[in-house]
Amino acid sequence: MRFTLSEKIITTANISKVKNTLKNNLSEISRYTEINNSKILVEGVHETFGSINKKDNSEIEIKELDKGFLIKCHVNYRPSFAFWIILLITLFTWIGWLIPIIMYFYHKSLVENTLKEALKNSKDELELITSKKSD
User: Fold this and answer.
1) % of the chain with per-residue pLDDT over 70
2) 3 close to 112: Cβ distance less than 8 angstroms
3) Which domain holds residue 55?
4) CATH no. for residue 53?
């Protein structure tokens, strides 16, 4: 399952500052974050015990605009190996097979909301820099 999130940031900060701000905010919510050329790679967003059901990795693109940047977060969210094992074990139970499926979709919404919040926090920080410079 793939989905994309985006955020437009109006700022006078340079691309290096934008990358570092995004990396710092994304590092707080993920297991792995790395700046790779013009992209930021992120894995393991909002990991909890129930995260054994999912595997996620994201690629964040930063595109320069006239007065800021467009941040696009391409998320690849899929079931983990553990998900399939748990599903097979519980498949022939009366209703137990629903547990891994419910956890999978619950964590998808957690990953999506957590990434949205990290993008919003980055946007707020970068736009604050611009407002301080204009004061």
Assistant:
1) 96
2) yes
3) 2-134
4) 3.30.530.20
Q: Inter-axis angle of helices 81-90 and 98-134, to 10 degrees? A: 150
Helix axis angle for 15-27 and 98-134, nearest 10°, is 140
Number of domains in the chain: 1
Distance CA 45, CA 107 (A): 9
pLDDT tens digits, one per residue of 36-73: 888 999 999 988 877 888 999 999 999 999 989 999 99
Nearest to 73 by CA among 3, 15, 1: 3
Nearest residue to 53 via CA among 27, 24, 87, 93: 87
Kindly list the distances between the CA atom of residue 10 and the CA atoms of 79, 87, 113, 123, in Å, as whole numbers in the listed order.
Answer: 36, 45, 22, 8
Could you tell me the pTM of the whole model?
0.88
In Å, what is the CA distance from 31 to each residue of 26, 45, 67? 9, 7, 32
**Cα–Cα distance, 12 to 7 (Å, whole number):** 16
> Residue 132 above 80 pLDDT?
no
